[in-house]
Amino acid sequence: MTLRSLIKTFWFTCISLFCSIGFAQENVSENESEITSKSSFLDSEGRQRFFAITAGGHKPFTSGDNFMGDGLEGKSGIDFKVQMYIYKHFFIGLATGASYFDVKNQELVGSYRKSRIAENYIYLGYEFLPTEKLRLGLNISIDSDLDYKNTGFSTSDIAEQHDSAKLNRYGLYLHYELAKHFMIYLDYSYNVSTTDINVPSELKDFFGKGKYSTIGLGLVFTIGSRDLISRFIN
């Protein structure tokens, strides 16, 4: 099973959980009452969640002496993520999205005008609680599947071109709690894609890695008030 198929399966599973187990357990365990407990920068029982879904957009910025930094200019992007809290505020997540670029130097990258990166990755992270309404999260990708699609070729016999890559992603975010299960987020990520683009050996360093950062904004929806392990041991 490919990573892309895994993410689609996980999304379907999450939706099923939201419709059945999640809301039922929320109503039974809490009866719409607030959990009272001590809070700290590292942990808060009252602010614990089970699942979080994020949806939003981002702006990509290319950088470095590579085919992306010198040849592409970031335009826009979309993000969808699901993360499950395994123990306290430690989480694992699956993400899918896309980043869109315009070509600013065809002499360096080729005779196409636009490029899109389809991004699918698994990530790990931890959430900190600096204030009553804020959540600070750090995360890192552990597996990934990127697809570059280049379009707008000057020759009519080529409609589009695809290249694959792996992603190393390092991210952080801030969530601001508008309500118990509804937040807005601002995030930043630094991304290094390792490609398998077929080029002469003297160009391997230039095309072997592409670097870009993203700044994103969007919405967060959560369910549940206990992490996964606590559901089994309590």
TrEMBL record:
Keywords: Signal. The keyword Signal applies. Residues 1-24 form the signal peptide. This is Outer membrane protein beta-barrel domain-containing protein.
